[in-house]
Write a structure and sequence with these properties.
The protein is α/β, with parallel strands linked by helices and 348 residues long. The chain contains eleven helices and ten strands. The strands form two sheets. It has an eight-stranded mixed sheet, sandwiched between helices. Strands 1-2 form a two-stranded antiparallel sheet. It is globular. The two termini are 29 Å apart.
Length: 348
């Protein structure tokens, strides 16, 4: 999403990192464009899972970390079009707690096949993809926890509405159930708190569609990202997060999210399932952060509408609270998974 994973925009990667874009893909058919020499992720070589679509069968990257018969977590990254790399510090926490988890790059992402996505950018298709991954990994209601952050939270909630009989638990991290509500908070709270001169310059650049102008990303980093995305000075951001920037696929991100950093404007602009949250009956953890790009109070409301949900808020965190509020984030996540596994109450 825009500020949800705003720093994944291709221009951000280029301007902040001076990084090179991935090797140019080679067209192998009219509907398929795949990176021929797929790089091996730093987390190690994983397993490619075939995914059937109306445009053919493609492969997505997964990698198992840890081992548990009853606590298996599939991680859904943000973007859309981002990568699993922003979750690399999960390996420092979950395995030691006896929790198994899976890195997974969705179709179109850097470590997975990158077909022409024009006809594949629908929530229903992404939900079906997650279901195919679940089946391939052998996950079921006795062990399957689905974790989604940002756009992954959209996907996780939609999956729960379609397939919650397959779930043991759901985790929604740093995501609201309404893009209109997200846009309202961005415009009426976050942008309103910004220096008026900075906001005016950003709006001027957006009107000119000058998204790659150095002022655009420079001002956002100084006046927004270090306060709301990852709360550290830019030169102290974690290497896995910075490495993920140039790996974003703009052919997925821009059509769904839109190019603007001041509001979502893509295919997801009207997405809103708030009136359906009461249908989610599976044990759910809603994770918020006090300094995130989305309103914590809205996320608490979400948890109250779900049938059995726990709300936790990271007091020091931004959008990537797993990095800037680690000391609160992982204990909350681990406690929830272990409580569900043990049949303990998840009431706050």
């Amino acid at each position: 999403m825009r500020n949800l994973t705003a720093i994944f925009i291709l221009g951000t990667a280029t301007l902040i990192l001076g990084a090179c874009t991935p090797t140019a893909p080679t067209s192998t058919s009219e509907t398929l464009t795949v990176v021929e020499a797929r790089p091996v992720p730093v987390v190690g070589e994983g397993r490619m899972i075939p995914i059937k679509t109306d445009k053919g069968t493609f492969e997505v990257f997964t990698k198992k970390v840890g081992d548990s018969p009853t606590m298996k977590v599939l991680l859904l990254h943000g973007g859309p079009g981002g990568t699993h790399e922003v979750f690399e510090n999960f390996s420092d926490h979950l395995p030691d707690a006896g929790i198994e988890f899976y890195y997974y790059d969705q179709l179109g992402s850097y470590f997975s096949d990158q077909p022409n996505m024009d006809d594949l950018l629908t929530i229903d298709r992404f939900v079906d993809e997650v279901e195919q991954v679940r089946q391939a990994l052998g996950l079921n209601a006795d062990n399957f926890y689905l974790y989604g952050q940002s756009w992954g939270g959209v996907l996780g909630m939609e999956y729960a509405l379609a397939h919650q009989d397959k779930l043991k638990g759901l985790i929604v991290s740093n995501m609201v159930s309404s893009i209109p509500a997200y846009n309202d908070y961005a415009h009426n709270v976050l942008m309103a708190d910004m220096d008026p001169a900075v906001l005016a310059r950003l709006e001027e650049l957006e009107a000119a569609e000058a998204y790659e102008h150095p002022d655009y990303m420079g001002l956002l980093m100084e006046h927004h990202y270090v306060d709301h995305i990852l709360r550290r000075p830019a030169d102290q951001w974690p290497e896995p997060v910075m490495r993920a920037f140039p790996h974003l696929n703009p052919e997925v991100y821009i059509p769904m999210q839109g190019p603007s950093e001041l509001g979502a404007s893509g295919l997801l602009v009207d997405w809103n399932i708030t009136d359906r949250l009461h249908e989610i009956a599976v044990p759910t953890l809603v994770m918020a952060a006090s300094h995130d790009t989305m309103e914590p109070a809205f996320k608490r409301m979400m948890s109250e509408r779900m049938q059995q949900a726990r709300y936790v808020e990271m007091p020091n965190g931004g959008h990537f609270a797993q990095w800037d509020d680690t000391e609160n984030y992982f204990p909350a996540l681990i406690d929830f998974i272990q409580d569900v596994d043990a049949g303990r109450s998840i009431a706050e």
